[in-house]
Design goal:
The protein is α+β, with helices and mostly antiparallel strands and 245 residues long. The chain is built from six helices and eleven strands. Strands 1, 2, 3, 4, 5 and 6 form a six-stranded antiparallel beta sheet that branches. A three-stranded antiparallel beta sheet has the order 8-10-9, with no helix packed on it. It starts with a helix and ends in a 15-residue tail after the last helix. This is Lipoprotein.
């Protein structure tokens, strides 16, 4: 009877252990490795795409990343494998789910300042879209208005007014409409004033989690409504009763 009990206990114990009782391979800094792997890319953005925690008696902390880059003139995304990371690294990035954790811009500068997804390379980049209040001035892209509108932007539809950072918001060109999905941006408009505030934080080395929404939460990061609702059952989430509780 004792041996049956012991066997049952060991089976129960092993079930809640990580995949192996052997030493788990830990990657101290996955982002550093990913930057090195992508160093030949002219432009890239790395997002903290997912995070998780396994085990009860011996915990393993995990990260997964998304690399966004250009291939043949199109913006594409590649999701990485799961990386086992140190608990200190996991806690350091506890608020950063969905955030941009590294990027190389058009000047070839690589930065590891955490910020909203896509704010370095895509939001505010005239190659991918434009700022406008949404008001259509003329439906002919070739007939630019000459009066009453000091600043205008042109897309495939026509000219739109653009003069006030408080009311202008970001529009992706149709050819790059998929970028919003790749970046997993939350619903709603991205106003130019918000982008400017984010860039101000960036240049000072601070993390910007966005404006406070009507729910009382920041727009970006682990505990924003956007990610909290999508990850409510995860072990590390507040909803899951684990990490961050």
């Amino acid at each position: 009877m004792f041996y049956l009990f012991l066997a049952a206990f060991l089976a129960f114990f092993s079930f809640f252990m990580p995949t192996s009782c052997n030493r788990v391979e830990i990657t101290k800094d996955p982002v550093k490795e990913l930057i090195q792997q992508a160093q030949k890319e002219p432009l890239f953005t790395i997002l903290l795409f997912d995070m998780d925690k396994e085990g009860i008696f011996s915990k393993v902390y995990k990260h997964r990343y998304r690399i966004i880059k250009e291939e043949n003139g199109k913006v594409v995304a590649k999701d990485t494998k799961w990386y086992n990371v140190p608990v200190s690294y996991f806690q350091q990035n506890g608020n950063n789910l969905g955030m941009e954790v590294a990027a190389k811009d058009s000047s070839q500068k690589v930065s590891r300042v955490v910020g909203p997804p896509g704010y370095t390379n895509y939001i505010g980049n005239p190659k991918y879209g434009y700022w406008s209040d949404g008001q259509l001035i003329t439906t002919s892209p070739e007939q630019k208005p000459t009066a009453a509108f000091s600043t205008m932007v042109k897309d495939s539809v026509g000219y739109h007014s653009s003069s006030n950072p408080a009311t202008d918001f970001w529009h992706f060109y149709p050819a790059y409409s998929n970028v919003r999905t790749l970046l997993q941006l939350p619903a709603g408009k991205i106003y130019q004033k918000e982008h400017k505030e984010a860039r101000s934080h960036y240049y000072r080395g601070f993390i910007y989690y966005g404006i406070i929404t009507s729910s009382g939460r920041r727009r970006y990061g682990t505990y924003s409504n956007h990610y909290r609702l999508n990850n409510y059952g995860k072990k590390w989430s507040r909803g899951g009763g684990g990490y961050g509780k």
